[in-house]
Every structure is written in structure tokens, then in C-alpha cells.
Write a structure and sequence with these properties.
Blueprint: E1 3-5, E2 12-14, E3 16-19, H1 38-50, E4 55-57, H2 66-74, E5 83-88, E6 91-93, E7 96-98, H3 103-117, E8 122-127, H4 137-149, E9 153-159, H5 163-170, E10 177-181, H6 190-198, E11 202-206, H7 229-232, H8 241-259, H9 263-272, E12 279-283, H10 287-294, H11 303-315
């Protein structure tokens, strides 16, 4: 496993993080990633830890608490060996998704997260999405700052936020980490990622495997359930993106044969070899997936092959399609 040292806290974190959105299963609105087995999920998380991963990312909205419960079971007896990142400010209410970061809402979510995770503190507490109900970011930061002062939270962060909001938050709180999308098929946040690096804010990237499409496991247009997140949240399985990515996979196939490594490891190395990526989220549901992801760090892509991949992405206009 490769590790990076966080810029503000000095904490050592693994180059990949356990992503747990999928293991939350379906929510009350029907959204999910297909069938999930909790025991498989727990074993997959433990396999990632055995492979050197020391950071697990979750959120209360993933399966409306179920993901946090699964993580809580997976870390039982080894809480001191892992860092836990969870979130606030995004939940389902009356059948609709809500982005609310009012202090009273944050505190309610925090208490519930601690119970589900079976812990008395979290290492990283992140705002999941910008508040859309008018709550000033300064009020939210004052609230989570108090949690940090009390020792209930060690580090603070933001997800899915633009530079302006990160700057406002940074004016009133130490922002240790920002979580933004980044992969070969989604470079929409590239300028903000580089800005974070320049301003000593660590970066946790999500969508590293393009909702699974960069593993090469799906070569024909799938028929997902209409509420499956791979069909509703991501554009990769829709045309024209799907066909463009299938063409791009041919270049990944060439490199897979050259290195004797699976496509998922190519995608992981491409992301984590970037200087501005502190750690990259990789979702796992099975031990085999966990072991494959961790093994990515037994080798590296050459600069020439990274350039080859980038040139093909440009030729196919894939990165420009996700704005």
C-alpha cells in the first residue's frame, strides 16, 4: 500500500479509501446498486484493511443509515486501526432528498451516526452536499468546529463544493480535506482539485472506477433497474458516453495485456499517481474486489502510458462530456 501524509493533521492515509455507498443497499426511494450481502460487505471491508487501507468513507444517507451500521460491524475490535470519515447535510425526508446543514440538523445526524458506527468520535466529518435551504456555511462551520473542540471530531471537510464555498468555509474553520469527483471519465473538478493542492487542502476523490465501467466488466449496454444509481446518478452507462468509453476500454485492454494487470488497477493507478490526489475512494462489495484494488499498488503506470491514456480520452472527447 502507498500512503500520503495529510498536510494539516500530519495523519498518514492510504492511497485508496474504502467507499461504502453501494453496500448501503436500496433506500426508501428505491435507489441502490443492485443486490447486496452484508456479510460479503463486512468481509470486503476487512480485506481492504488487511491490504493496508486505513480509511473508510461512509454517510448516513447511504441506505439511510445501513452503510454506517455495516461499517460499525466491520470495525468492531479494530476501531483504533482505522480512520472513519462520515458526513452530514444529506438525507431523505418525506420521500425526497434534502440537503440541509442547519446546526440542529447536523447535531441530530451526528448523534445518529455515532450510534450506528458504534464509536464515540469520527476522524473526518464532511458536509455531503452544499445546503440548499439557505443555511450560511459560517453557521454550519461554527457547529462542527464545536464538535472538533469537544474531541468528537478530529478533522473537517466538504464534499461536492465549489472553490467559492471552500474558501468561505476555510475563512472560519480549518478544512483538512475536500471530496470531489475524479476519474479518467470525469475530470470536471480538475481545476478545483489543483487549487486544493496549492492551498494545502487534502483531496479524497470519488467515482474512481466510473461506477464500475472502468473495470471493463460491462461491455454491453446493461439494463439496470430504472432507479439503480448507475443509471440515474452517473452518465457513463448512457449514450453517447457508453459507446465512447467502450472504445476507450480498448486502449486500457492493451495496457492490461502489457502489464498483466486488470483494468481496475490501471484506473486506480492513473488517479492515485496524480500529486493532488491524497486518497481515492474505491467501492467494494466482495473480498476479491478488495484484494484486486489493494494489489494495484504493487506496480505503477509509466508516464508514457499515462500520456497514451490521456491522449485517447482527448481524442474521444470523453472528459469534456462530464461538466
Amino acid at each position: 500500500m502507498r500512503y500520503k501524509t495529510m498536510k494539516k493533521s500530519g495523519e498518514k492515509i492510504s492511497a485508496i479509501t474504502v467507499g461504502t455507498w453501494a453496500i448501503g443497499g436500496k433506500n426508501s426511494m428505491g435507489g441502490g446498486y443492485g443486490e447486496i450481502d452484508d456479510q460479503d460487505s463486512i468481509e470486503a471491508i476487512k480485506a481492504m484493511i488487511d491490504g493496508g487501507v486505513n480509511l473508510i468513507d461512509t454517510a448516513p444517507i447511504y441506505g439511510e443509515g445501513h452503510s454506517e451500521e455495516v461499517v460499525g460491524k466491520a470495525i468492531e475490535g479494530i476501531r483504533d486501526k482505522v480512520l472513519i470519515a462520515t458526513k452530514y447535510g444529506s438525507y431523505i425526508e418525506n420521500g425526497k432528498g434534502v440537503h440541509c446543514s442547519r446546526p440542529d440538523s447536523v447535531l441530530r445526524e451526528f448523534d445518529a451516526s455515532l450510534k450506528r458506527l458504534n464509536t464515540d468520535y469520527v476522524d473526518m466529518y464532511l458536509m455531503h452536499w452544499p445546503d440548499d435551504l439557505g443555511t450560511p456555511i459560517e453557521d454550519t462551520m461554527a457547529c462542527v468546529n464545536k464538535l472538533k473542540e469537544q474531541g468528537a471530531v478530529r478533522m473537517l471537510g466538504l464534499c461536492n463544493s465549489d472553490r467559492a464555498l471552500i474558501e468561505r468555509a476555510s475563512a472560519v474553520a480549518d478544512i483538512d480535506i475536500v471530496q470531489l469527483p475524479f476519474s479518467m471519465v470525469n475530470q470536471s473538478a480538475l481545476s478545483d482539485l489543483k487549487w486544493c493542492e496549492e492551498n494545502d487542502i487534502d483531496v479524497m476523490t470519488w467515482g474512481s472506477l466510473g461506477a464500475g465501467i472502468l473495470t471493463g466488466a460491462v461491455r454491453e449496454k446493461p439494463n439496470f433497474d430504472e432507479k439503480d444509481f448507475r443509471a440515474t446518478f452517473y452518465p457513463f452507462y448512457q449514450e453517447p458516453m457508453f459507446s465512447k468509453i467502450q472504445e476507450f476500454l480498448k486502449t486500457m485492454d492493451v495496457l492490461s495485456e502489457k502489464y498483466g494487470k486488470p483494468l481496475a488497477q490501471i484506473a486506480i493507478n492513473w488517479s492515485t499517481q496524480k500529486s493532488f490526489v491524497s486518497t481515492a475512494l474505491t467501492g467494494v462489495r466482495k473480498v476479491s474486489e478488495a484484494q484486486e484494488n489493494c494489489a494495484a499498488f504493487e506496480w505503477s503506470l509509466s508516464d508514457e502510458d499515462i500520456a497514451l491514456l490521456d491522449a485517447e480520452l482527448t481524442r474521444l472527447e470523453i472528459t469534456e462530456a462530464v461538466a
